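User: Could you go from structure to sequence for me? I need the amino acid at each position, not a summary. Structure tokens:
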């Protein structure tokens, strides 16, 4: 009996200390906060975002571009000390992240994706990102978007269903790397897109962020309590 109890104790200890299946970050703003799961299918973007978050890079940067029914964009290093009327969106860290397009990862509402300039490789900005709000589409609207803005790109039925019920921005698929999704606190995005904006879609009132990486214990609790990710392929 003692041996059995000892074995169960050791087994429990090992399982409780197991690494979570994914990495998570928390983004805090004056308009709420959200927890983002980073996809394992996009390791270059995942690791780069974690590196910057651990360095404290994002702390104090702005969500500098906000468009209702589209997205909120942030992470410009120039935004930390930007004057109120200063144009933002061109700041960088001197390197890009290789594109990581995956057919299964698409621009549904709540995803985290990388901003970029017009480089031919479609490589991502090292730091600038956006969180999708988007809108809901009908089948007719999706068909029209396919032909007018997606060069006829096929939209799988499973993704169509999401765009019709949850919403998103399908015309961005295959052009910008999607590398995470909000798993808690989606209301933050809806709150931020509702603020007043001025030139360049910049919020009249600065919306700064604080970004940190969740510890393993917190990540495991999320996966156990809210996500049920045992069968997730991501």
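Assistant: Here is the amino acid at each position, in order:
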């Amino acid at each position: 009996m003692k041996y059995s109890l000892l074995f169960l104790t050791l087994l429990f200890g090992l399982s409780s200390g197991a690494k979570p299946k994914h990495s998570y970050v928390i983004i805090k703003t004056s308009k709420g906060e959200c927890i983002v799961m980073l996809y394992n299918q996009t390791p270059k973007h995942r690791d780069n975002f974690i590196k910057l978050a651990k360095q404290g890079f994002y702390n104090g940067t702005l969500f500098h571009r906000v468009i209702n029914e589209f997205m909120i964009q942030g992470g410009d290093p120039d935004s930390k000390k930007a004057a109120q009327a200063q144009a933002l969106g061109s700041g960088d860290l001197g390197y890009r992240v290789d594109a990581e397009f995956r057919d299964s990862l698409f621009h549904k509402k709540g995803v985290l994706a990388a901003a970029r300039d017009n480089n031919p490789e479609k490589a991502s900005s090292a730091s600038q990102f956006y969180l999708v709000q988007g809108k809901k589409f009908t089948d007719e609207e999706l068909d029209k978007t396919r032909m007018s803005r997606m060069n006829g790109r096929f939209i799988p039925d499973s993704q169509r269903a999401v765009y019709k019920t949850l919403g998103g921005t399908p015309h961005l698929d295959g052009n910008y790397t999607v590398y995470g999704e909000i798993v808690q606190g989606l209301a933050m995005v809806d709150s931020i897109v509702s603020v007043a904006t001025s030139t360049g879609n910049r919020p009249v009132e600065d919306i700064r962020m604080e970004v940190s990486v969740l510890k393993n214990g917190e990540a495991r609790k999320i996966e156990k309590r809210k996500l049920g990710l045992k069968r997730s392929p991501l």
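One structural detail worth keeping in mind: The radius of gyration is 19 Å.
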